[in-house]
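Bench notes, afternoon.
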Amino acid sequence: MRVPLFPRTWRAALRFSVLALACLCLASVPAFAGNPNCSFGCTAIYTTLQSTTVCFSSSPTQCFGNPFVSHVSFGLTVDFFQPNPPSQLFGGHSATSGAPGSPDGFFNTGTMTDNADNYFTFDGRSYGGGNLNAGTYNYYCIPHGAGMEGQLIVDPDGTSTSVSQTAGSNPSIFGQTVTFTATVSNSVFFSFVTPTGTVRFADNGLFISGSLPLNGSGQATFTSSTFLGGSHSITAFYTPSNGNFTLSDSTGSPLSHTVNAANTSTALALTSGTNPATAGQSLSFTATVTNTSGTGVVPVGNAIFEDNGTPLGGGTIALDGAGHAVFTTSALAGGTHPITAVFSASNTNNFNGSSSAVINEAVHDFSLSISNPVQSVLPNQTATFNGTLSAFGGYSSTITVSCQGSPPATCTGASVPLAANAQNVPFTVTASNPAVANFSFSISGSGAESLTHAVPVTLSVGSFSFSQPTPNSVSVAQGNPSSTMTFQISSLGAFTGEVDLSCPTPPSGVTCMFSNGASTQALVLSAGQVINDTLVLNTTSSVPVNTYPITVQATPVAAPGQFQTRSVTLTETAPARANTFLYLGNSPNGTTENLTKLPVLLGVGNNFSFDISAFNSESSSDSHNVNITLIFAKPVATALASVTRGTGGESCMPISAIAISCSLGTITAAAPWIKTVTYNVTAASGRTLDFTAILSESNVNLTSPTVLPETVKLRYRPMLRPGLMPGNNNPK
């Protein structure tokens, strides 16, 4: 059925405002007014006679070529019109689709009459030969055939696509349902065909829907409650169902939509165990996280269980599908624990975090500590372990402290009342053992609620050994030191500490001398250490000849009563009879005497020197503490002395204005057995210079002379004038 022109025109007028209609009219006035019935949305094609030429044309009077090519938009109407005037010289024409002689049936006006309308609307309808869609249609005139042809190109209509939010709020809350509507409009004026096809919605350029068909109003909707929190740019992409319309999208004017995070609340409950609990008891805390924004979406994320604001080990638990998380622990220490659950969303754009109220969980327990867990003592010496007890979480009990494991022979604990939350309550445990041994055991405390705590301790029961001095018997001449005796002080077990050496009651005149040169010595032993030491017995000449037991004692400072003693034997003998004497002279080799004589005459003021030697003639005994004292009868001008043959350690020094003492030490019975002192003397005025050399030694000397007297006569030279005698420089 053909649609009349006028109803279509009025329908357009109703859909546009007066102003828009006026503008459209100005833009769409036909080039020729030969067909008053083809106006808005209508294109006239005339059968035109120009002189003797017939054609299809957009002008009733002028031809523009054969075939005549024209364009029309899909949805608009074509009116094939045969005008009169001018009169048609060749009678009626027709517009028949197809090629001359081969009509295709899409449209056919039949034989047209003058000034009659032949409407065909290209909106997909069919006039018997197929749907008039966008495309190219060839047509011709009967009877003119190839002499009068046309080509009608039906262009697809342009479209525009827009998106609007038609349900829900903007901004919305995560999980809230929102609906977006895409509207596809025909952009061609007076083409009232609604676009057909599908729309796909996109968010930030990514498709979020499948192909949704347009309804009869050119609209498609998309509804979702899964938009993530954040900013969204919603667009729609139109795809026509056929070639009658063009593609379009709304990317030029996207719809901005914001999704805010949903608020949450977190509740915490103790779902297994008690409050207060006992240390080591299993406790379960359950966190329940709820979406308080009313969108019905269960929060996703973790519940972090905290103790006084610090996350508990293993306490980050993922929520299940119902928003629950359960944390089970038996590791809470004694005390009061403010437990909370903190919700941390997997995506903070979707959910806001929240924290629970505090559950103050009290855990009963006590602690036991030992300040000196490692000790060393001697056998039967008591070690004291010092400890403290503290209560936590309101716990109170009487704590039984005892020794557990493998303690020493004696180990004594305590019973300690412990008030609620009492801190650092002291106690002691004592332990001892009669023999050297090492013990590793524990000091344990047990109280109410089956609570027990223990601290490992060690006790080393050690001692020391004091070896018998070697040799253990010495023979000493009166006034002489003994030979050196050696011994060892050794740590036994893990003994450490100071051991003091002494001889408690030596005989009168006998002194013990240890390696430090003193009569007592302190040795500090470390575990496993061995110290070698020496002992010498010094005797005086007053010690009677006899045999004496000497007690040597080693005393541990930590336990003086556990001293150890060893005995050595001293045999005191009379000294050997040394045969040491003086002679005037020296020795070329320390074994041969070289006797000299002093000058009997000496010039006044002249210096002279002489040697005095001490000679040990005994082949078996040494002479000890040998000393030569030279005494002048009257003062001299100068006197110097030095040891010119000795073994080292000898010395000389004046002891008065008229005496010089020389200490020669020991003169051995073995070579060399001679020591020599050289004297340099300048005599004062007088007739003679008299002196005496006196020998002394620690050995009793009965056979050799101890006194060597000598006299030097002084001579005065005559008074002569200088030069009368060669070498005489005396001016007098």
